[in-house]
Design goal:
Layout lengths: L35 H18 L9 E13 L11 E16 L2 E14 L7 E16 L2 E12 L3 E3 L5 E4 L6 E13 L6 E13 L7 E15 L2 E14 L5 E15 L2 E14 L4 H7 L1 E13 L4 E14 L10 E12 L3 E12 L11 E13 L4 E14 L3 H4 L6 E14 L4 E14 L6 E13 L2 E2 L1
Antiparallel strand pairs: 1-2, 1-22, 1-23, 2-3, 3-4, 4-5, 5-8, 6-7, 8-9, 9-10, 10-11, 11-12, 12-13, 13-14, 14-15, 15-16, 16-17, 17-18, 18-19, 19-20, 20-21, 21-22
């Protein structure tokens, strides 16, 4: 991407029985997103068409990288059931990635699919998970950037990760979960110092194989302004609107306005003050439901970003959120709740340690789920070290607790109270050659619920061999 020292385009990573038991054999539904590979071909054709229509396409520098991962392992709770069944398995995950074009006009496509073969639980043999992503970035000039993307994922794994790799949620219902998100973003630089105007739109569809899980479609649009009106000051604002169409529950409309004023000391040091106001409104003719579901939120924040040394960075904010709503059915209404976020990173030449913490009072914490207003507490820890030139080890842990603040039955949620998730993981890897590597991957996962009926626990360990071979033109 072409840039000068005054212009920089910010990049936003955008990207989706009875309870826990087996449902009747005549009731499963096929996810509406359709077969995995069929959508992959449609996605690939879509992105290639967009890129071909752009002026100045130059396909010099094509890199095509097929890859495959295969291994053996043991899972003491296959498909994460409340009544666990363990088994050994063989796994294989073929995939490929393609990067084509110059930095000013580039197409990236990547995808993979995992298939397992179990020793005893042969009814689970076959497809386990898959994903495919396509992204096209076009820079017609140094002042403009256009980005279009599409991402599709499908999995039987109940654990979902965020864009940063931390644990986001553990699904309430077993079965296959599909998510497809399509969107785009346009960014225009306004002048030196990083001032810019951006607008984005996304459309996300979540489908579930289990008929008790609710499907949804979400449209989201935002417009943001970052204005460096003085050498040491920056003003940020963003307006966001969301419309969520649920399969059974009433649809939800949401809007937020966020404002921030920052005092800049260095590119890595700043302090800021901000406010966020939002509203959530249900599209229902039932007065009791709209009274329960609707609320307004008001948040005040004070934040900072600080580089204490080349090795130690910190970033975060503290604040309070006040909820205006029906106090009889919304536990958070009429009160100001503390909120905040913190990230600490300490790095040395061969290792890195990161600690993250979050306290929020918000909605849409779990993509595709109609949870209502949720008080989320989250902690994360990561330690990564290169033991030698070929050996590498990382270990981490996540803890998430969601307290649901609105009446479950009136909101449309099928569960109530709280959910608590734990994840412990570690990976020991060895680079055999330039194209071959081997790793030992372990994960512990547990999900606890207030009624204690659907609690799950899982230990999974697998020995994997990875191979990739890039081809360049």
């Amino acid at each position: 991407m072409r840039r000068n020292r005054h212009h920089q385009i910010s990049r936003r990573r955008l990207w989706a029985r009875d309870r826990r038991g087996a449902w009747p054999q005549d009731s499963p539904r096929t996810p509406a997103l359709g077969p995995y590979w069929g959508w992959g071909l449609i996605l690939l054709a879509w992105c290639l068409s967009w890129a071909a229509l752009a002026p100045g396409v130059a396909w010099a520098g094509i890199i095509f990288t097929p890859n495959v991962t295969a291994g053996v392992g043991y899972d003491d709770n296959v498909r994460q059931q409340s009544h666990p069944n363990g088994d050994t398995f063989f796994t294989v995950r073929p995939g490929a990635s393609l990067q084509a074009g110059k930095p000013t006009n580039q197409l990236t496509v990547a995808g993979s699919a995992e298939f397992n073969q179990y020793s005893r639980l042969t009814n689970y043999n076959g497809f386990q998970s898959g994903d495919i992503m396509a992204r096209w970035r076009y820079l017609p000039s140094q002042l403009w950037a256009i980005e279009l993307f599409n991402g599709y994922s499908s999995s039987y794994d109940l654990a979902s990760l965020s864009e940063t790799g931390s644990l986001a949620q553990v699904q309430q219902f077993s079965g296959r979960h599909d998510r497809n998100i399509t969107g785009g973003r346009v960014t225009h630089l306004l002048g030196p110092g990083g001032s810019q105007l951006s607008a984005g739109y996304s459309y996300a569809v979540v489908n579930n194989e289990n008929p008790q899980a609710e499907n949804s479609a979400e449209q989201k649009a935002d417009v943001g302004l970052s204005w460096r009106f003085a050498p040491k000051y920056r003003f940020d604002s963003i307006v966001t609107g969301t419309y969520t169409d649920y399969e059974r529950s009433p649809d939800i409309e949401q809007a937020t306005l966020a404002l921030r004023l920052a005092r800049i000391f260095t590119p890595r040091d700043e302090i800021w003050l901000g406010v966020v106001t939002g509203t959530s409104h249900t599209l229902s003719d039932q007065v009791s439901l709209s009274t329960t579901r609707d609320y307004d939120s008001y948040t005040a924040r004070a934040g900072f970003k600080k580089s204490f040394s080349p090795s130690f960075d910190a970033e975060g904010w503290v604040g309070a959120t006040y909820i205006s709503g029906d106090t009889a059915t919304n536990q958070a209404a009429g009160e100001a709740s503390p909120t905040g976020q913190l990230s600490l990173t300490y790095r040395q030449k061969i290792w890195l340690l990161r600690l993250t913490a979050l306290e929020s009072l918000d909605e849409n914490q779990s993509p595709g789920q109609n949870t209502g207003l949720t008080d989320r507490k989250q902690l994360g820890l990561l330690y990564d070290i290169s033991l030698t030139q070929r050996w590498r080890f990382n270990v981490g842990a996540d803890w998430v607790r969601d307290d649901y603040k609105q009446n479950a039955f009136l909101v449309g949620r099928t569960f109530q109270g709280y959910s608590e998730y734990w994840r412990l993981y570690s990976v020991l890897s060895y680079q055999i050659t330039q194209h071959w590597s081997v790793r030992l991957d372990y994960r512990y996962l547990t999900a606890l619920y207030e009624n204690d009926v659907d609690n799950i626990e899982q230990n999974r360990i697998v020995l994997l061999f990875d191979y990739s071979l890039p081809f360049r033109w």
